[in-house]
Amino acid sequence: MTNSRISGFYDLTLDERRAKLAESARLSPDELSVYATNGGLSPEAADHMIENVIGTHALPLGIALNFQVNGQDVLVPMAVEEPSVVAGASFMAKLARAGGGFTASTDEPLMIGQMQVLDISDLQAARLAILDHKPELVAEADTIDPVLKKFGGGARDLEVRVIADSPIGGFLVVHLIYDVRDAMGANAVNTACERLAPRVEAITGGRVHLRILSNLADRRLARATCTIPVKDLAFTVGAGSRSMPAQGDHKGRPYIYTGENVRDGIIEAYAFAAADPYRAATHNKGIMNGVDAVVIATGNDWRAIEAGAHAYAARTGKYTSLSTWSKNADGNLVGELEMPMAVGIIGGATRVHPAAQAAIKLMGVKTASELAGIIVSVGLAQNMAALRALATEGIQRGHMSLHARQVAIAAGASGELIDQIAARMVAEKVVRIDRAEEILKGIKDK
Q1: Which terminus of the chain, N or C, has less C-beta within 10 A?
Q2: Which of 133, 175, 285, 361 is catalytic?
Q3: What is the pTM of this model?
């Protein structure tokens, strides 16, 4: 069994971390050696993946610890350049463990293929004609991918929508509902739509124009919930925090955030996002900080996930929060996240990129559904990390502490000077490259 609780992981060297990770995930060191070589993707291999290749571009890959999803510990690889994301998710996962970890569930892996049918004089008559032929259309689509069918996938349904008014007038949209099993599904769905297009034209007398998968995968939702005991939300900070009560500076004494303070602050922050699209955009971006990092690490299509998430957030006609936060009868904090999650563990970059293959192996997932459940759990954890910071100390305190190291490096610091200069800037509450350069010059001039 994997153990996601690794004490002192942050303090280990890079080699020691990989060794410890292999031990915790019951893998051999060789299986994670790809992470020591820029993800193992050579320029030659990259040249076969996209056009006009000149090399590769690396992102930091960290491991989110402490995650427990559906009773199983999981080590979560995250590819992300933004400071505090991995640390925030790991810490929130630790709090969630006290309440039983994350519970995740997913829908069947149903994707939607769309066919745009133009040049139709009677939209309703054409719609009914397609529906009359639905059984044979679904049966034909079901024979297109025998490999997918062998594993239980294939065509499931067919729907017809009428777009009565558009910049070019009315037209029909045929939705092919397709079970893609452990694939993301774009290729299978697009192929099926291409195959059905001539039959749809013959039935309607119209012209099938676009034939393409929809990234609003609202038939393929993933959900995660967690309960945080209110007592575990309490923490203490030193005096001087901008969020201290107005009745005084406590004369240098530390300030204690009670669990109730933190819980209510998170719920109030969520309410802002639920009611206001300007806040919801940033709120959901915080969720995607966690989601995208795992999606990228596993070689999945983060752009498709982003598009689906934001479209789903606006499904009622108003853009709002993807997550909800409340308290239960015992006063504990309860978080929930639901969003489309079209990810796969077969095909595409997941099967080509060595680092993506290592990530799937490290997580121990056997199905796309398991992967989706983990990803949505990370999104919920990351959301809680951002809300907790905003509702208490402010987002900058922890974020800028980590960002200061990047600024120090950009100023030319190396080795032990990185942490020395970063600590100085954080203490001064001035994290800027010009200040880092001044500090570095002062050290060298001594």
Answers
A1: C
A2: 285
A3: 0.91
* pLDDT reported for residue 324: 98
User: Is 361 one of the annotated active-site residues of the chain?
Assistant: no
Among this protein's residues, is 399 annotated catalytic?
Answer: yes
Residue 278 has pLDDT above 60, yes or no: yes
Is 353 a catalytic site residue? Answer: no
Q: Establish whether 175 is a catalytic residue.
A: no
Catalytic residue (one of 179, 301, 370, 393): 301
Give the side-chain half-sphere CA count within 13 A for 407.
24
pLDDT at 245: 43
**Mind listing the pLDDT tens digit for each residue in 5-17?**
999 999 999 999 9
Residue 395: predicted pLDDT: 55
Average pLDDT, the chain: 92
Catalytic residue among 283, 310, 399, 403: 399
Which residue stretches of 276-316 are H helix?
A: 277-297, 302-313
Interatomic CA distance for residues 47 and 174, integer angstroms: 37
DSSP state string for 78-103: EE--STTHHHHHHHHHHHHHTTT-EE
